[in-house]
Amino acid sequence: MTGRTEKMTGARAIIECLHREGVDTIFGYPGGQVLPIYDALYDSKIRHVLVRHEQSAAHAADGYARATGKVGVCLATSGPGATNLVTGIATAYMDSIPIVALTGQVPLSMIGNDAFQEANITGITMPITKHNYLIQDANDIPRIMKEAFHIASTGRPGPVLIDIPKDMTTEMIDFHYPETVKLRSYNPTYEGNIQQIKKAAEEIKRSSKPVIYAGGGVISANASGLLQAFAEKVQAPVTTTLTGMGTFPVGHPLFLGMLGMHGTKYANYAIQESDLIIAVGARFDDRVTGKIKSFATNAKIIHIDVDPAEISKNVHVDIPIVGNAKRVLEDLLKYVDKAPTDDWLEKIAHWKRSYPLYYVGGKENIKPQYIIEQIHDACKDAIIVTEVGQHQMWAAQYFRFSEPRTFISSGGLGTMGFGFPAAIGAKIAKPDRVVFDISGDGSFQMSSQELATVVQENIPVIIAIFNNGYLGMVRQWQELFFDKRYSYTCIRDSVDFVKLAEAYGALGLRVKQPSEVRPAIEQAIASGRPTLIDFWIECEENVSPMVPAGAAINEILDLERKA
Amino acid sequence: MKHTLAVLVENRYGVLSRVAGLFARRGYNIDSLAVGITEDPTISRMTIVVRGDDLVLEQVTKQLNKLIDVIRVTDLGTEDTVERELVLIKVNADVKNRSEIMQIADIFRAKIIDVASKSMVIEITGDENKIKAIEQLLKPFGIKEMVRTGKIALRRGPKSI
Fold first, then answer.
1. What is the ipTM of this complex?
2. Does B71 contact A130 at a Cβ distance shorter than 8 Å?
3. Domains of chain A with bracketed CATH
4. Segment B105-149, tens digit of pLDDT
């Protein structure tokens, strides 16, 4: 069919474009202005997963994209359907995740008239998309679809939205799918400047206290293997951001764990004392740097990033290298040797021994960290998706990740309600993997309606609710900084989660004793059914250690009592 | 510090709002913005005068470049350029002071483009200082209305941006 044109409706053209882009699954919710698209979808081989709220469609597309590296696709109708996508699109934007969002729109002639279910979604999503389109000529559909997938997945990835007025979907067009994209104004830089790379290599050779600081950009560039080779060759320790978890195996001797607000003490100490930071695909977010003026004051900074706008945005960079993490690391590997880091690694080993992550095991109460460890023991290659809050930090701290794309979490935007739908996307993308949604009792109630989706579609994700009866992370801040005035953070006895799961037809399990933790996890995995486990955890457990807001990252406090 | 940016963009629906939105949400201050089509009808050119230090300018330039519809951003601040702005000023004028105002206009090579019994409209082009000067001189007569296009600028010599 390539090269020839064929007559079809705009709606069929959209579905055909999805086929050509290799899309096998989309997540969506129908409505008036997308009726023709849904009609075309009815005959298509593309799997459509019907979510119960459009926000979940965007999160599921996001989870699918994070688990695979492919572009995730979601579809919603005009007006409220489109505006419900907004949080999901913003979540993907903040973490640079490639999704294409398709929205219905009122017919072209009615735009601007405040028609029924009209919302200016291109205007609304301008600051949270990499780019967006309003289709004004049905003949542009193939070109715009092609461009959207290209823009979403190249350079620094991100969400692209296409707003499609209804009359564009009913019009007949001559379908011809372009093979290439021509955009004179969009040419991402992939190859790092070789002079800069040599300069960086010189700096690395001289450094006696280097730290590699890796972020989500390493994962999106599929550069995790190279990062490990690079770290091993230089013999430099590695710390990652939240979204970078999984890019470096947790058990590796060079690994420092996560840095920042709830990072390990030794990662933060290492950063603060380093003489050289090699940042790869990370953006010096405030949760990482803490008080910016006190951040790594003795270190020179090499910053490898595909987005030039990230260079020197938050901290001054000495040697910027704009390019794709994989290509740059490939080149850099040719020029670097082992750095004189023996004393440094010894010092770090000492810190690791002196200041490990720890928790004091509960005999009667269930410690949340223990659940994470048990999930890891039961299923080492599980994909861990999280909501946002304390449970998210415990998952990042205590799960021993060994490969990229196995930790899926809303880092930049910090979206509660992200995890469950994102887990749906991840499970559909990786049906052979066990997928856990690590959740809190607060977060879960933001997307609990998706129990209907997982049951109807038989998507066996496992929801592990860390139920402490609180909006735990906010409670923790109130305990520490607001004199334990728990203003509107107690949500105890909201609902019987087991009955809720059962009402939808999912398996519901309740765990109140430490001894029941492991059997419940194993039962959930063995069931092959969508399962919710309601873990009643110690209510006022805090995430530890912690850098208070506004402090330097080496001013890190232990909040866990000593044994 | 003021910087003059020449920004070539796709001549397309929504581009102006993308650029304006970027300035608003990142907290950059625009002094003036002039936009129009270029010799190539698919390209528009924006001349943006922005306030900020070098770091801000660097971020503005990079963020603009990230917009898919932005083709090129050039900082004209460091270049040898010609800059102009067109201003229309409606000033109070009657029989008594009409000739005095005309004299001022003459000195500034401004044009009188409308005369009524109690007002005149003066068209003037020039750089910021010239416009400031005539504005000062006309103020005592009573400026009723003033409208400016915003600065536009071109590099001197044969080279284009």
1. 0.90
2. no
3. 6-175 (3.40.50.970), 194-354 (3.40.50.1220), 368-536 (3.40.50.970)
4. 999 999 999 999 999 999 999 988 999 999 999 999 999 999 999
* CATH code that applies to domain B82-154: 3.30.70.1150
Chain B partners within 8 Å of A308 (Cβ): 62, 65
pLDDT in tens, A64-93: 999 999 999 999 999 999 999 999 999 999
Sequence spans of domains, chain B: 2-78, 82-154
Among A127, A185, A307, the residue with its CB nearest the CB of B71 is A185
Kindly tell me the burial class for residue B107, based on how many C-beta atoms sit within 10 Å of its own C-beta (0-12, 13-18, 19 or more).
exposed
A130, B68: Cβ pair inside 8 Å?
Answer: yes
Residues A559, A480: Cα–Cα separation, whole Å: 10
CA angle A532, A533, A538 (to 5 degrees): 145
* A245 closest CA partner among A442, A13, A400: A400
How many CB atoms lie under 10 A from the CB of residue A371? 26
What CATH code is assigned to B2-78?
3.30.70.260
In B27-97, which residue ranges form alpha helices assigned H by DSSP? 54-66
Pick from A542, A524, A525: nearest CA to A534:
A524
Contacting residues for A273 by C-beta, under 8 A, at least 6 apart: A209, A298
Residues of B within 8 A of A307 (CB-CB) are 66
SS (H, E, C) A455-481: HHCCCCCEEEEEECCECHHHHHHHHHH
Cross-chain residue pair A122–B14, CB shorter than 8 Å = yes
DSSP state of A206: H
| C-alpha–C-alpha distance, residues A531 and A455, integer Å | 9
Q: Which residue has the higher pLDDT, A110 or A561?
A: A110
Please, are residues B7 and B22 in contact by the beta-carbon 8 Å criterion? no
Q: Is B23 on the interface with A (CB under 8 A)?
A: no
Which tokens go with A130? 């990499």
User: pLDDT tens digits for A531-550?
Assistant: 999 999 999 999 999 999 99
Question: CA-CA distance, A432 to A436, in Å (whole number)?
Answer: 13
| Distance in angstroms (rounded) separating the CA atoms of residues A436 and A380 | 12
Task: Compute the distance between CA of residue B26 and CA of residue A269 in angstroms, rounded to an integer.
Answer: 32
Q: How many whole angstroms separate alpha carbon A530 and alpha carbon A459?
A: 6
Provide the angle, in degrees to the nearest 10, between the axes of the packed helices A368-378 and A514-527. Answer: 40
